[in-house]
């Protein structure tokens, strides 16, 4: 049985992630008391019904703080058995969470007459630290809308084939913010910028005119070689440590040209060695 534990801060998109998994064939249950997780997992894995082969469970700050403290021990117990577990943790910047609560007018589970929304968010982050520290996949949803989050969960969790490490190459634009859930970040802003060529500005790094422009510059090839060589050296060691997910972010100023080109080139190279090699261009429609 595969058990996906979905956790994260209130307003970060936990319900959306659980709904995606449910739509894609997972038996999903939200707000399960953590103290019941081991018994629940044993029951589900013990049944012969294929309906329960893939299960998703939401665990969050609505649990007792004493129970959350024991999450690492509970997870270790599950991993010592026949159950394949993955922990997904969703997060977002405090100002984004405050804005989302303001727009939806929902009540944060930890607010009361003496605890403001900002204080509740900070308390929740501390309470959930035992879970976030054990996350296999950390997703920052600060810059993601509902549809983008659905696509990302589908791409990373459901699109994963077999038990190998899921390797995501993501392009982004620095002017739109650094991706907080990246494991490695490479900066391409020192490379020649197609944006300043009026004939190239409306094209992206996936299109021939931009590709041909970039490939006339020796620095572009040198940058690719340096990133490739670094990852070829360290990815096998990371995969050997039983990592389930890894995100490599490549950024340029706007996220349309240089970073897109480089990500496409890296994916073409590493997809031959890593079965679960994925691509995401954050700034492209």
Topology readout:
Layout: E1 2-8, H1 14-23, E2 27-29, H2 37-46, E3 54-58, H3 65-69, H4 71-79, E4 84-91, H5 94-104, H6 117-127, H7 129-132, E5 137-140, H8 146-158, E6 166-173, E7 184-187, H9 208-214, H10 218-240, E8 245-252, H11 258-270, E9 277-281
Parallel strand pairs: 1-3, 1-4, 2-3, 4-5, 6-8, 6-9, 7-8
Helix pairs in contact: 1-8
Structure description:
The strands form 2 sheets. Strands 2-3-1-4-5 form a 5-stranded parallel beta sheet, sandwiched between helices. Strands 7-8-6-9 form a 4-stranded parallel beta sheet, covered by helices on one side. It contains 11 helices and 9 strands. Helix 2 links the parallel strand 2 and strand 3. 41% of the residues lie in helices and 18% in strands. By secondary structure, the protein is of the alpha/beta class.
Percent of residues in helices: 40-55%
Number of helices: 11
Shape: globular
Oligomer: single chain
Which structural class should the secondary elements be placed in? alpha/beta
Q: What order do the strands of the largest sheet run in, or round the barrel if closed?
A: 2-3-1-4-5
Largest sheet: 5 strands, parallel
Mean pLDDT: 93
Number of strands: 9
What gyration radius follows from the Cα positions, in whole Å? Answer: 21 Å
SSE pattern: EHEHEHHEHHHEHEEHHEHE
| Unreliable stretches covering 5 or more consecutive residues | none
Binned strand content: 15-25%
């Amino acid at each position: 049985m595969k058990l996906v534990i979905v956790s994260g801060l209130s307003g970060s998109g936990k319900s959306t992630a659980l709904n995606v998994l449910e739509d894609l064939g997972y038996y999903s249950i939200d707000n399960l008391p953590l103290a019941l997780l081991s018994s629940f997992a044993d029951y589900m894995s013990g049944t012969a019904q294929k309906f329960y082969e893939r299960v998703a469970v939401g665990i969050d700050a609505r649990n007792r703080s004493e129970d959350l403290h024991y999450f690492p021990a509970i997870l270790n117990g599950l991993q010592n058995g026949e159950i394949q577990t993955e922990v997904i943790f969703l997060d977002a910047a405090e100002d984004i969470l405050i804005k989302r609560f303001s727009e939806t007018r929902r009540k944060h589970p930890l607010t009361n007459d003496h605890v403001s929304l900002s204080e509740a968010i900070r308390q929740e982050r501390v309470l959930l630290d035992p879970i976030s520290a054990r996350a296999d996949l950390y997703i920052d949803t600060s810059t993601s809308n509902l549809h983008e989050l659905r696509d990302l969960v589908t791409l990373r969790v459901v699109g994963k084939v077999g038990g190998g490490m899921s390797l995501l190459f993501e392009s982004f634009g620095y002017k739109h913010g650094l991706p907080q859930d990246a494991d490695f970040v490479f900066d391409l802003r020192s490379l020649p910028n197609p944006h300043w060529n009026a004939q190239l500005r409306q094209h992206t790094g996936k299109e021939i005119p931009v590709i041909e422009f970039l490939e006339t510059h020796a620095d572009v090839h040198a940058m690719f070689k340096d990133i490739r060589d670094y990852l070829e050296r360290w990815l096998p060691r990371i995969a050997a440590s039983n990592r389930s997910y890894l995100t490599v972010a490549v950024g340029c100023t706007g996220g349309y040209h240089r970073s897109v080109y480089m990500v496409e080139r890296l994916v073409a190279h590493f997809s031959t060695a890593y079965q679960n090699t994925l691509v995401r261009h954050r700034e492209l429609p």
